[in-house]
Amino acid sequence: MKKILLIHTGGTFGMAFKGGTLAPSAFINGIIEFVPEIRKIAEIESFIVANIDSSNIGIEHWIKMADVIARNYEDFDGFVITHGTDTMVYTASALSFMLEGLSKPVILTGSQRPLSEIRTDARNNLINAIELATYPIPEVCIFFNNKLFRGNRAKKIDVWGFDAFTSPNYPILAEVGVDITIYPENFLKSRNGELKVSKEFSNKVFCVKVFPSMKVDYLMKLLELDLKAFVLEAFGSGNLPNIEERSLIPFVREAVEGGKIVAISTQAVYGKVDLSLYQCGKDVLEAGALSCKDMTTETALVKLMFLLGKFGEDIDKVKEFFYVPIAGEVS
Fold it and tell me: Among 139, 189, 279, 327, who pairs with 96 as Cys (CB 3.0-4.6 Å)?
């Protein structure tokens, strides 16, 4: 029987469990009380990283999760992380970059209703995440509502529905119905070898959602702060206002000339940034901005945090590797 390590971080899933701190034995006993079937799938052990709302998840928690996986890597066949849905895609992206050489499944899951509720999606998500973690899937994934997504390609799109996530620009890795259907052609190539964990991140990044009549003066004030990179969530294929007093191009130009990175993502869920399509995009490109291409805004932000942590003040290196796929996050 396969061995799976269940790593708990908090979120709606575990709201049945009272108290700020959980002992691993109490946690796993509580899980088995509600979902005894998991004992038929695999031998389960658990580890508690945190028991918090995922809005409070940060770099320090990503590092703890990665450390737990690394310490237990040889002893388990797969890893399932129970996590709140609000920041799940950020954590999945971070782990996908941190776990170099990963050749085993790391699957994040959670729920829209607590495990203790009668009408809950938690049981289905947990059972199937654990079963999929027994398969040879060599990447960080998110399982939700019968679909397995590449973690750094997923996006939360629904607050109320059980079908809370989608993968806008990359096909799913597996889906669960009467049978489990695996799509190995969509997997990353197995990275057999020693697992290495990169733990350096920088939080000197900032994201701005562009809106009509935004004043460039407000953005200019951000250049006075100790920030290294900006992600501007632009219109359509990456367009920014470019005429007269509405133009945001001066911000992009001044930021780049000041040694900062400006990356352009899109407010659209599907499709990719193409700065060559319209003049509004061409002006952004000529000002020195980077394109997030088909990365989600969340993944682009985490990737910049990761690359800035890795390369520090070498902004040219960060720019160079921004376009290089680390874990299948960009086409």
Answer: 327
